[in-house]
Amino acid sequence: MATNGRERALWREWARSLDRPLTSYYLILGTGVLLIALGLVMVLSSTMVNSIAETGSAFSMFQKQMVSAAIGLPLMFLASHMPQRLFRKVGHPAMIVAAALLLLTIIQGVEVNGATRWLNIGGLIVQPSEPAKLAFALWGANILARKDELRELTEWRHLLIPLLPGCGMLVLLVMLGSNLSTALVFLVTFLGLLWVVGAPGRLFVAMFGLVLGLAVIAIAIEPYRMARVTSFLDPGADPMDSGMQALHGLYALGTGGIFGLGIGASREKWGFLPFAESDFVFAIIGEEFGLIGTLLVLTLFGMLCYAGLRVAFRVKEPFPRLAAFAIVTWILGQAMINVGAVIGVLPVTGVPLPLVSYGGSSLVSTMVALGVLLALAKTEPQARKTLEARGPSRVQRALSWLGLENAAASVNNRGAAPSGRATTTRGPRTAEPRGGGTTAKHRSGPVPAGDRPRRNRRR
């Protein structure tokens, strides 16, 4: 009985710890950092063989990923300190820039393995579809937030216009670059935004039918997509070509067992599993860390999803709620598509595992998205009160010089008062009568020393 009582007390203490004001913030930060660190370790492990074969150094691809992480870290830090009004303002121009870069990719992009997904900008190879995911999330959240503030979300045309044309434009541009997997991520984010604003069920049925029809057409017109579907239905039909990646991904998971072969001991990365560092890094995790490692990765993504949804359902304003939900839908949906392809429940799509797979554009874009989530987590009512009690940080004071933070209001409302004077944010104060006499007049400022009530002291 005593043991059960202690267990219940521990559970109550754990539940109270989850109800703290900054729980969402620290969960997002902690899970994000752990996933990034795990990703760097797995990129080093899975790329050593190919790096030696291509450059003679085992660390060449890992160094590129480290540079991307070094770029993404300060961007994530800055994004976490930006006000939400800046995210609202940047959504529309970011959407225009993303569409322009995707169009430029189609015109003069770099083609790899039959897909035109990359753009050479001054010698730097980037994948514009990755930052376009964040741009669409912020733009879509701002569009629906404005309509919600104007009470216009009761009609279906306000739900779909201009959100559906904007999503359709991005889907068309990435499809022209033979990137069906990223198109699926855009569609998942689009449906997530519709769900969180309370779109009717019949609209989802219609959209699902439309997406399914377009997917069938897109698969039918491209032979390599049809080959992927065929290999998904029967991977053993062509084990040396179209079914090779799916089969060896399952081999890697099976070889790892429960505890794995050990870090760096993967066998499939020695040329047997194509794109082991990006599309199938989850299989290498399962091979080297076993079932325990894969469950740990899924748990981290689950905690990240919980923290993001916690932000979405606790904030008061429509924009942070919609933006947080859109970002969580994007990251979680992409992770589910990647893991589903590795374990064989979905066709191989070529979607990277967020924060873990090799790829600079994906890593930097997702880290910035985490920074946005961290900034939105600070807008929770209890988190905002806690941060106001602490006063403005050095970063907020520094950003005030750039016009990004209203430092004057922050200092007046949260900062310490000058010496010799007292400030108050409460209403008028009433002085007690000195000796049971009349009440003093209400004053908006501090009570002078001569009007303060005196305590009777025994001499």
From TrEMBL:
Keywords: Cell cycle, Cell division, Cell membrane, Cell shape, Cell wall biogenesis/degradation, Glycosyltransferase, Membrane, Peptidoglycan synthesis, Transferase, Transmembrane, Transmembrane helix. It is a multi-pass membrane protein. Its main location: membrane. It catalyses: [GlcNAc-(1->4)-Mur2Ac(oyl-L-Ala-gamma-D-Glu-L-Lys-D-Ala-D-Ala)](n)-di-trans,octa-cis-undecaprenyl diphosphate + beta-D-GlcNAc-(1->4)-Mur2Ac(oyl-L-Ala-gamma-D-Glu-L-Lys-D-Ala-D-Ala)-di-trans,octa-cis-undecaprenyl diphosphate = [GlcNAc-(1->4)-Mur2Ac(oyl-L-Ala-gamma-D-Glu-L-Lys-D-Ala-D-Ala)](n+1)-di-trans,octa-cis-undecaprenyl diphosphate + di-trans,octa-cis-undecaprenyl diphosphate + H(+). It is found in: Cell membrane. It holds the Pfam family FTSW_RODA_SPOVE. PROSITE patterns: FTSW_RODA_SPOVE (PS00428). Peptidoglycan polymerase that is essential for cell division. This is Probable peptidoglycan glycosyltransferase FtsW. The lineage of its organism: Bacteria, Bacillati, Actinomycetota, Actinomycetes, Streptosporangiales.
